[in-house]
Amino acid sequence: LAKTTQPISMDSYEGQEVNITCSHNNIATNDYITWYQQFPSQGPRFIIQGYKTKVTNEVASLFIPADRKSSTLSLPRVSLSDTAVYYCLVGDIPSGGYQKVTFGTGTKLQVIP
Amino acid sequence: GAVVSQHPSRVICKSGTSVKIECRSLDFQATTMFWYRQFPKKSLMLMATSNEGSKATYEQGVEKDKFLINHASLTLSTLTVTSAHPEDSSFYICSARDRGHEKLFFGSGTQLSVL
C-alpha cells in the first residue's frame, strides 16, 4: 500500500485558493488518488478522485503530475465552512478487489475570517 | 453519491455490556465494508475488513473476539463491541465500496462512551 505524506496543518483566509499537496512516492500502477474531507464527529466525505493529469468537479480540482508521485487538491475561494481535515488516500479502490484502504495523518485546514 | 447509513450515532453503555453498531449501504450492494476507529484529533485507524458471506479480516493488534464483525448480506455489516470497557470508548466509522461508482463511501460514525 502506498504511504502518503501531507502537511499536518494549513491556515488560509476566506476567499483564497488553497492547495494541499500529498506525496505518495511508491504509488502502484493500479492505484487511484482520492481525497476526503472530515468534520469533527462525522465520517469522511468524498471530495474528488483521479488517476492522472487533472480532474475537476463542482467543489475542487485535483492535479496529478506525470510521475504520479504526488497530487495537489485545490479548493477555490475557501469559506469558513471548509475548515476541516483533508485526507489523501491512495489505493486500488475501483478494481473490485479486496484492497484495504488506510488513512494517513491528514491536513487540518483552518480558514480564517 | 451513494449513501452509507450507520447507527446509532451515539451510544453510552456500562462497562461489561456489549454494543452493536450497524452499517448499511442504502442504494448499492457492498461486498466489502471496512471498520475504523478514531481517537480525538487522530486519523482513522483501520480495524478490519468485512467480507460478505465470509469471516472478517482483522488488522494486527485488533482482537477479533472483542470486536465481532458480521457481514450477513450485501447491504449490512455489524460491529459488536463485546464486554466493553472504558478504553473502548472511541469514534467508530464504517465504509463501503460502491463498485458502480468506483468509490469508497463512509458512514456518519458512532461515538461510543463506556462508563
SSE map:
The complex is a heterodimer of chains A (113) and B (115).
Chain A: E1 9-13, E2 18-23, E3 32-38, E4 45-50, E5 53-56, E6 61-64, E7 70-75, E8 84-91, E9 107-112
Parallel strand pairs in A: 1-9
Antiparallel strand pairs in A: 2-7, 3-4, 3-8, 5-6, 6-7, 8-9
Chain B: E1 4-7, E2 10-13, E3 19-25, E4 32-38, E5 44-51, E6 57-58, E7 67-73, E8 76-81, E9 90-98, E10 103-106, E11 110-114
Parallel strand pairs in B: 2-11
Antiparallel strand pairs in B: 1-3, 3-8, 4-5, 4-9, 5-6, 7-8, 9-10, 9-11
Specify the biggest β-sheet of chain A. 5 strands, mixed
Distance between the termini of chain B: 37 Å
Question: Sheet bearing the most strands of chain B, described?
Answer: 7 strands, mixed
Q: What is the annotated CATH architecture of chain A? A: Sandwich
Structural class of chain A, by secondary structure, is mainly beta
Assembly state of the chains shown: heterodimer
From the alpha-carbon coordinates, what is the Rg of chain A to the nearest angstrom?
Answer: 14 Å
Query: SSE order of chain A in H/E notation?
Result: EEEEEEEEE
- Spatial arrangement of strands, main beta sheet of chain A: 1-9-8-3-4
What do the pLDDT scores of chain B average to?
91
How many strand segments of chain A?
A: 9
Given as residue ranges, the uncertain stretches of chain A (5+ residues, pLDDT < 50) are none
Mean model confidence by pLDDT of chain A: 90
CATH superfamily descriptor of chain A: Immunoglobulins
- How many distinct helices of chain B? 0
Based on Cα principal axes, name the global outline of chain A.
Answer: globular
